[in-house]
Automatic annotation (TrEMBL):
It holds the Pfam family Response_reg. InterPro entries: CheY-like_superfamily, Homeodomain-like_sf, HTH_AraC, HTH_AraC-typ_CS, Sig_transdc_resp-reg_receiver, Tscrpt_reg_AraC-type_HTH. Residues 432-530 form the HTH araC/xylS-type domain. Gene3D superfamilies: 3.40.50.2300, Homeodomain-like. Keywords: DNA-binding, Phosphoprotein, Transcription, Transcription regulation. It comes from the Bacteria. The lineage of its organism: Bacteria, Bacillati, Bacillota, Bacilli, Bacillales. CDD domains: REC_YesN-like. The modification 4-aspartylphosphate is found at D55. Residues 3-120 form the Response regulatory domain. The keyword DNA-binding applies. This is Helix-turn-helix domain-containing protein. It comes from Paenibacillus aestuarii.
Length: 531
């Protein structure tokens, strides 16, 4: 539950807000009322206030001053400001100070209740996020105190050693470190690949989450009589190694179930997508090679997510190579058939998910699709760099990392391209858009390139098109507009000639006078006298 305070020098208005809404239904356990800023500060110091609804204009200190006082003390109090006047400066100051909303009185109780529902929902979400971060911090503190175990160091040496250790070297390491492994033991390596977190976290919280994931893996995998060692070789991978000795015969189906249970917990509790690969039981000297095989499988996996790949049965993965129907896709993109095109793409993606797809195949599809999109934009006389930005090609690496990433990327490409095509084909002509941009930016350094980028066209094409439509080049048109505005300001304002020049993009007064005289036959001063 939360606590609310209403601040208004009009006592009846404050009580009206307090009594006019069922605050308990919205989640507020207590509603305080203050009729001046001084009393409001006292209540804040005495109680844990979560939200303040405050009038701006009061005789003994206004709402802006209260908001500044709250910000100076770093208090996590959300505020809504009420006023009888729609003063822009008040609104601007309130936004700068972080108010949730700026409301004009009188406001209907239904509207205020609706706004407060959203405020409460946001506070609830923030509390959940803070609880999640506190859990991660607790694990982080434990992680800081944790010292590497002897067995973990042994496996780190074996698996991360730059080269291959022979059997004699491994036996010496076991003897030196008193590792309780029998020479006849075999081991099952299990690789977990963390494919991404659906929550954005600061670095410290991410490190804590990685440690929490490892602890969860240990608790989930090493049960039902199973023992082993957890290793954290990188921020994106977890590794478990389970020994199989004469007296340790595991139920492999139970092992797979445990791995799937860990994946499910990672999804639900840590918002992570995870791929899992169970390797074959091998001798200790062959564990590194088997782990490398699991890494290779992970590098080429773009379709299997949040489930277990049992490499014992799945040595060879035969992938049917499907190719998109680019001719149909191209025609749909050209005509702007967004829904139909996305449906075709999703149907193709479903086929990839069903039959499998390699990393190289997905990269090739991404490159071909981007090339097709560039071709369509070129046909529409649109500049692909302006439409997509400079990072569309770079993003292919991330798009090809998984089927889900590919779907998000290709949907974004389609929507962005079709929006650009439609914007050019809408009622507002290119000439009108160029004219508006020039008039809005007369005081800046206008160039053919900057204007072309604004309308998403090739600069050379824009210049040819503009000349054909208006009889002027872009440069001539800019000059015409500047002279026109200069004349209006010289005739209708008391601005100095230098200020007039600066307002239309001429920093050099002499240059402006020369250009103005060349266009009109008189200097700016002479023109003003004549009018």
């Amino acid at each position: 539950m939360y606590e609310l305070m209403i601040v208004d020098d009009e006592w009846y208005a404050a009580r009206g807000v307090a009594n006019g809404i069922d605050w308990s239904k919205l989640g507020f356990s207590y509603v305080h009322v203050a009729t001046n800023i001084s009393r409001a500060k006292e209540i804040i110091n005495e109680r844990q206030i979560d939200v303040i609804i405050c009038d701006i204009e009061m005789p003994m200190g206004n709402g802006i001053e209260l908001l500044e006082w709250i910000n100076e003390r770093g208090l996590a109090i959300r505020t809504l400001l009420l006023t009888c006047h729609t003063e822009f400066e008040y609104a601007k100051k309130a936004v700068q100070l972080g108010t949730l909303d700026y409301l004009v009185k009188p406001i209907r109780y239904e509207d205020l209740a609706s706004i407060m529902e959203k405020v409460v929902a946001r506070m609830s979400e923030d509390r959940q996020k803070e609880a999640f971060l506190q859990m991660l911090r607790a694990n982080y503190d434990s992680w800081l105190r944790h010292q590497p175990l002897v067995i973990e160091r042994f496996w780190t040496d074996v698996l991360l050693y730059n080269g291959t250790l022979n059997e004699l070297e491994i036996r010496d390491m076991i003897a030196d470190k008193h590792i309780p492994f029998r020479p006849s033991a075999r081991f099952i390596p299990i690789l977990f690949s963390i494919r991404g977190c659906r929550k954005e976290l600061p670095l410290r919280a991410f490190q804590a989450m990685a440690y929490a994931l490892r602890k969860e893996m240990e608790e989930t995998i090493f049960q039902s009589g199973m023992t082993g060692q957890a290793i954290h070789p990188s921020s994106a991978h977890l590794l478990a190694v389970l020994p199989i000795d004469h007296d340790q015969i595991y139920n492999l189906n139970q092992l797979k179930d445990n791995c799937q249970r860990f994946i499910n917990k990672s999804n639900e509790q840590f918002y992570c997508d995870v791929a899992c690969y169970i390797g074959e039981p091998v001798e200790l000297k062959k564990v590194k090679a088997e782990v490398e095989r699991l890494y290779e499988r992970d590098a080429g996996n773009v379709t299997i997510m949040n489930q277990v790949s049992w490499m014992i049965k799945d040595k060879g993965v035969h992938v049917t190579k499907h190719k998109p129907d680019f001719s149909t896709w191209l025609q749909l993109l050209k005509k702007g058939g967004q829904d139909e095109l996305l449906a075709e793409i999703d149907e193709f993606i479903a086929t990839l998910q069903k039959d499998g797809c390699s990393l190289e195949q997905l990269k090739e599809i991404c490159q071909d699709f981007l090339q097709m999109s560039h071709h369509v934009l070129q046909l529409k006389e649109l500049h692909a760099g302006s439409v997509f930005g400079d990072n569309a090609g770079i993003a292919i690496a991330g798009a090809a990392r998984s089927i889900d990433n590919f779907r998000s990327w290709v949907h974004e490409i389609v929507v962005t391209a079709i929006e650009a095509i439609r914007s050019v084909e809408q009622s507002q002509t290119i000439v009108e858009r160029v004219d508006r941009y020039i008039m809005d930016n007369l005081d800046r350094g206008l160039s053919r390139e900057s204007i072309a980028e604004h309308v998403c066209l090739n600069p050379d094409y824009l210049n040819r098109f503009f000349k054909k439509e208006t009889g002027h080049t872009i440069s001539e048109f800019i000059l015409e507009r500047r002279i026109k505005v200069a004349k209006e300001k010289l005739m209708n304002s008391s601005m100095s000639v230098a200020n007039v020049a600066a307002s239309i993009g001429y920093a050099n007064f002499s240059h402006f006078s020369m250009i103005f005289k060349r266009a009109t036959g008189v200097t700016p001063a002479e023109y003003r006298k004549k009018t």
